[in-house]
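Exercise (ungraded).
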Amino acid sequence: MTITTAPAGVSLRGVGRAFGDHVVLRDIDLEIAPGEVVALLGASGCGKSTLLRMIGGLDLATSGSVRVDGHDVTGIDPRCAVVFQEPRLLPWRTLAGNVALGLPRGLPRNERDAASRQWLAEVELHGFADHRPRQVSGGMAQRTALARALARRPGVLLLDEPFAALDALTRLRMQDLVEDVQRRSGTTVVLVTHDVDEALKLADRVVLLGGAPTGVSVVLDVPGDRPRDHHQPELAALRSELLAGLGVPRRTPLERETHAR
Amino acid sequence: MTLSGAAEEVRERPATTPRRRWTPVAAALSLPVVVIVAWQVAASSGAYSAAQLPPPLSVLDALADLAGDGSLWTHIAISVQRVLIGFAAGAGLGFLLGAAVGLSPGVRAVVAPSIAALRAVPSLAWVPLLLLWLGIGEGPKITLVAIGSFFPVYTTISAALAHADAHLVEVGRAYGLRGGGLLGRIMLPSVAPAIFSGLRLGLAQGWLFLVAAELIASSMGLGFLLIDSQNTGRTDILLMAIVLLATLGKLCDALLGLVEKRVLRTHK
Ligand SMILES: Nc1ncnc2c1ncn2[C@@H]1O[C@H](COP(=O)(O)OP(=O)(O)OP(=O)(O)O)[C@@H](O)[C@H]1O
Ligand SMILES: [Mg+2]
């Protein structure tokens, strides 16, 4: 089975979202090219999830336009697939049954089952197809959620802090997996994260959200080919710029050296 | 503890496990056995007349008598039939209305307060009205059973669906489910345990209302047997009818429990 998708572009123009009087997002302009990996970085509560949900059509903008692949998003968008912060698996279904939720409706049962198993194999979960969500670890559950999203063959893969609840080691493995799957499928990825290093490791561009109400404060191109090692020296400056933008300034190793002299 | 002691303990375990499983059964049976013995002693002591307190065995005799002339089966069959039809109607309506109220805030706003008000009416208050409107045939009895079954099912399902796991519902929507698909694949399975507890409560309440209906106006059924034997002073038949009602109620609940276990086996 090939896992290639037709990557879709995303275009946000003057996008705003208010909940009653509470304006959360305003004037967001962002063009995401097909196949690009963009990380959305911002403080907790600034509206990252809201922005991601608007791209997927789970929430609608109160101003501006959200377009995927050139079409206005007016409801749940079939070209998008979301992985949430929690796995959100249906506890009464097996892992294969959960992945089947991402497959096109109306497939004959045997085809659906075979396809679910293949997607599970893509996330290294062959052999766990018949397990129930409660029988597997948090990392495995989150990988199942990723398989469910991939089964939709999304033009845009929307990831809302998908690794935040995982332990450090599992998180590294999941990052590698997402990197690998993105490279092979070519899909566009919008990744919401709190983690500057994760953004620098996976993304082509990092969008820093900030202000009140939240807007785009900085957009940074990340140099070098993926997969990257976030310890690469040329990333150090970007790293401190992003951390400063998030309100937690750190001195780079270079600055520290100069200081010591 | 020594090693051999530990080994002995391990070896002993298979022998003690089955015995332990029987202990609760024996414990549960001990009290009824004591009651039956006390009943036998009291009945044969001469302190009470046989009409007031027949000995346990004469209850069995009554059972055999009525079973022999076939009238017992007629009473049981008509009661079971009333419960099944009434329960199906009441639970079915409770399910539909409960789902509508649970899923749609609009329907909830219009319908829920009125149903809550109806629920406040003590059930037996309906009887004269039902007799007046529906006559003395099967209609009022089945309707009363349906009323009894309706409320527990309606209440549990409307509450459960209104509070269905929002995260899972959102996943369903994000993966393209809407309307009936969302209800059938996500919402109903996620509230299945609540649905079953509502159905079991509804069935139990159906039996309760059946007895009320048959006590008041009927010429057949176990409730009729209760009132008829009271009038004729046949305490043995009266006690037998009580035991039969308990047995049938428990049997129905156990059957529904089996279905529940099968359906929910993937939920644990
Ligand atoms: N349905 C809603 N109704 C009212 N306010 C909402 C709703 N959803 C989000 N908000 C508000 O919008 C703001 C942004 O929420 P959002 O979940 O998008 O933040 P976030 O950046 O994803 O935060 P976190 O990093 O903690 O996940 C918050 O102030 C929140 O209170
Ligand atoms: Mg969020």
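Further reading is listed at the end of the chapter. For now, observe: Chain B touches chain A at residues 167-168, 170-177, 185-186, 189-190, 192, 266-268 (CB under 8 Å). The domain at 54-266 of chain B is CATH 1.10.3720.10 (MetI-like fold).
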